[in-house]
Structure of Sex hormone-binding globulin:
Amino acid sequence: MFLKAVAVGLLLAVCLIGRRVEGQRRGKKIVSGDSLIYLGQDRNPWKPLIRTAANISEIRSIKSTFQFRTYDPEGVIFYGDSGDAQDWFILSLKDGFPLMQISKGDVQVSVTGGPKLNDGIWHTLDVGSKGKFVVLDVDNLPGLVVGMHSQQTKEVVSGQIRLALGGLLASKDKMIVELDPQMDGCVRDGRWLNLSMPWEVDEDELLLCHQNIQPGSYFAQEGFSLFNTSVFDIDEESGLTVGLSGNFSQMDGTLLSVMSSEGELLGALRADNKTNKLHVTIGKHKDELTNNCKRLQITFLRSKVEVLQTLDKSIAFSYDQESTPGYITALRGGRLAIGGLLGDREDMVGSHFLTGCLEKIQIQGNNIDLDTALKDKSASSHSCPV
Ligand SMILES: *[C@@H]1O[C@H](CO)[C@@H](O)[C@H](O)[C@H]1NC(C)=O
Ligand SMILES: *[C@@H]1O[C@H](CO)[C@@H](O)[C@H](O)[C@H]1NC(C)=O
Ligand SMILES: *[C@@H]1O[C@H](CO)[C@@H](O)[C@H](O)[C@H]1NC(C)=O
Ligand SMILES: *[C@@H]1O[C@H](CO)[C@@H](O)[C@H](O)[C@H]1NC(C)=O
Ligand SMILES: *[C@@H]1O[C@H](CO)[C@@H](O)[C@H](O)[C@H]1NC(C)=O
């Protein structure tokens, strides 16, 4: 035991960043299992961020404990398997509730329930097996229990067990419940099977977990969220309505841009923190507002385009049909971007990116989840640093 500890110690070219112990092993960066880990990522969201493995023969405790915090209702938290993904386990959130999916031998089960966890508060989760049952405890109270019995399964006593955070090591097609894997959340103080082996990092750089957060979508001037307008159900009568809330005086850059399929910019909203103005562009018209309102709403109708400000919905600007001909038709096959300015028809890259926190984004009256975007390069879809 002592020798093993020394060996692990030698493998770690230890440097301390906060509580995260980092080092290198076989050319891969490593972190300790109790590090503070942000689960979101910019690349393939199905790929794990960090992973580790242990020999089953070494495992004395079949329980893992960690703390978890998020405002995101859906995404993958933790994955484990044995026999190269023959048997596997996935813990995720769906609609805010914990969801466990397990495949063991010829048995596949999913179970969901317990308390909602996406309240932005740190929760302690314990996952373990007790005989034929897999048990999830939340904040030391019973959360989920699932019993499994099969004639075919036999106890596995050798081979490896693998663990992963922020993605899967099995094919996503094997899952019973469909999921959007992206998770804007953090894990800390992990004790994984009570083993102290380090975790390998699959990515060059892990994103930062902010100490304090509030609900919202945070843009770090690195990109935008892109949608096809066809997903928003735009009809001739009610048109398209986009509502944005937040402290606009703390924002800088493009809030919203809308473009026709022909590559014509139909409308744009931009915040400028130097002049303290909000710039409104509708077709060829340009206007400005002071940035001290808390909510902006823009509605594209067949006969006009309206920009409303604050909660009392006073009309800031209204543009009639002559200035906005055929807008609804042009909108329908177009694109909509939050947090950046769309370029021409082929451009998926954008420019003039936003810095700041949009507390609420509503389209056609519904809160929009940026994880459903065609392309999402906001820094975090469900939380803003405070
Ligand atoms: C795990 O087991 C394999 C053989 O089954 C062995 O070669 C390897 O050294 C073991 N690893 C550890 C960390 O004990
Ligand atoms: C976990 O490991 C520690 C030290 O490595 C040991 O003292 C403790 O008994 C273990 N707990 C369990 C449940 O195996
Ligand atoms: C979005 O729209 C573009 C152009 O209209 C189209 O090529 C693309 O397939 C659409 N994507 C989705 C996911 O609907
Ligand atoms: C918005 O931000 C400004 C500048 O930081 C601050 O002075 C103001 O109090 C904030 N407004 C609200 C309503 O929080
Ligand atoms: C305006 O926003 C930019 C981008 O975030 C920031 O660098 C700058 O400090 C801000 N300026 C003021 C006056 O707040």
